[in-house]
Amino acid sequence: MLTRLALPIVMARIGLTLMLVVDNMVVGHFGTEALAGFALGLVLVQTLQTVGLGLLMGGMVEISAAYGRGDVGECGRIWRRSLLYALVVGAAFVALAHQAPWLFRLLGQTPELAAAAGGIAGLLGWSLPPMLVYIASIALLESTGRPYVGVVMLALANLLNLVLNLVLVDGAFGIAAQGAGGAALATLIARLVLAGGTIAYILCLMPGRAGLGRARLSDHAWGDGRRQRRIGYAEGMSMGIESGSFALLTVFAGQMGAVQLAAYTIAININMMLFMPAVGIGGAAAVRVAQARGRFDGAGMARSGTTGLVVFAGLMLAVALALLVMPGALTALYTADPALAAVVAPIVAGIGFLALIDGAQRVVASILRGYGETWLPTTSHLVSYVAVMVPLAWALGPRGGLGAPGLILAIAIASVVATGLLLIRFRQLAARPLLSPNEQEATWASS
Fold first, then answer.
1. Percentage, residues of the chain above pLDDT 70
2. pLDDT per residue over 237-284, tens digit each?
3. Widest Cα–Cα separation across the chain
4. Which domain holds residue 45?
5. Is residue 262, in this structure, part of any structural domain at all?
6. Alpha helices in 371-434 (DSSP H)
7. What is the pLDDT of residues 198-243, one digit of tens each?
8. Bridge partner residues of 172 (DSSP)
9. Of 272, 240, 262, 248, the residue nearest 180 (C-alpha)
């Protein structure tokens, strides 16, 4: 059951990332300097998007638990609460994205790079509200057994994004070449279509949509969303810590020059793509764990979590071995610059093993969210990615002279620490007797 649910969730998460992968590929062939500016602007928006995804995680967990109890009406109320939450958070992120130029200058980037990257961040920032609305909506679809709808919607959006990239970046049909800005505009349009199409499906075509109930002001009662927000705050902070730390490494790469920044961007772009199976399988495991929690099935919770880990490890080991023997083919998709390819190819050869380690901690963190765990994954990420990864990356990269490979090595070491800490907690929860429903409510009320 978990693998049947995980497959479409993995496909949906890959689809989310594929849009940005295509952007990077097209801009990379437009020019190395253009890719550097696009990458730096994207990293801020990607960090904000990751925080938003975490903030909305509580909606997925609580919809899954409500569906496990058979309460479809409550699923609808949680979804509508998540939609408003997504719009509010998205609007705040738009405002933050427009502060990018001075932020990049503050972080030591050249005025030219800061201006180019700031323009990209400002334009891409407008795509965050529709992106978060889509994420809130696929949480409803995935948690209630309709995950393939999100996959179809994303496939169509990615096709639109690809066509728009080919037209806008290099210019076609009388449209002047827009470079990196064209890729950002293509993504904005595709995400608006994606969010609108998904909402239209739920409201007009989704089977059983009447059971979700009608929108009411009472859906947004502050007290009713307490548990949802609590999980979201912790997950948003956790994912924000991780993503923000990775963003800081992009700044380090920028300080080492355009080639090192572009090389690091390509490596992280591939890792981000490979990270999506972890998000998808972890999301599926969280859904199954939360549904078992709704049924008060402690053994089912442990079984679903373990299955998620095994499925992920088997999949990513196969991917890592494949990349080890064919790094050049993947590198060629991003650049035709020989100097850049020479730096990137050795990193690509080992990036699959990084994705295995990095993704494992995300799968375990998602499982813990399904258990209702809140702040321990956040603490783990604070220790691993702030206290370990950032100073180690600085020591190996800008100070140690290892360039982009040094930054990748720092990520691998931090991910080992994070995965170990989270696995310890999962084993503790799996072995602990599950509280009764009344005891669970009492624990939530007192914490």
1. 94
2. 777 777 778 778 888 887 787 788 878 888 887 887 788 788 778 877
3. 67
4. 2-434
5. yes
6. 375-381, 390-396, 403-431
7. 999 999 988 888 878 888 877 777 777 777 887 777 777 777 777 7
8. 175
9. 262
How many structural domains does the chain have?
1
Alpha-carbon torsion (247, 93, 275, 195), positive or negative? negative
Is 445 contained in some domain?
no
pLDDT at 447 (0 to 100): 46
HSE-CB for 317 with a 13 A CA cutoff: 6
Strand partners, 175: 172
The pLDDT tens digits for 353-397 are: 888 888 888 888 888 877 777 677 778 878 888 889 999 999 998
For residue 211, tell me if it sits in a domain: yes
Residue 441 counted as domain residue: no
Q: What average pLDDT is seen over the chain?
A: 83
> What three-state secondary structure class fits 170?
coil
Q: Which two three-digit tokens encode residue 139?
A: 């949480």
Q: Is the pLDDT of residue 444 over 50?
A: no
Q: How is 187-208 classified by DSSP, letter by letter?
A: HHHHHHHHHHHHHHHHHHT-TT
H helical segments located in 98-225:
100-106, 111-125, 128-143, 148-168, 180-204
Q: Which residues contact 184 (CB under 8 A, 6 or more apart)?
A: 23, 38, 41, 120, 123, 124
Amino acid letter for position 219: D
The helix/strand/coil state of 175 is: strand
pLDDT digits (tens, 9 = 90+) for 48-94: 888 888 888 888 778 877 887 888 888 888 999 999 999 999 999 99
Q: Under a CB-based contact definition with an 8 Å cutoff, are residues 265 and 39 in contact?
A: yes
Q: Which of 430, 244, 265 lies closest to 331, judged by CA?
A: 265
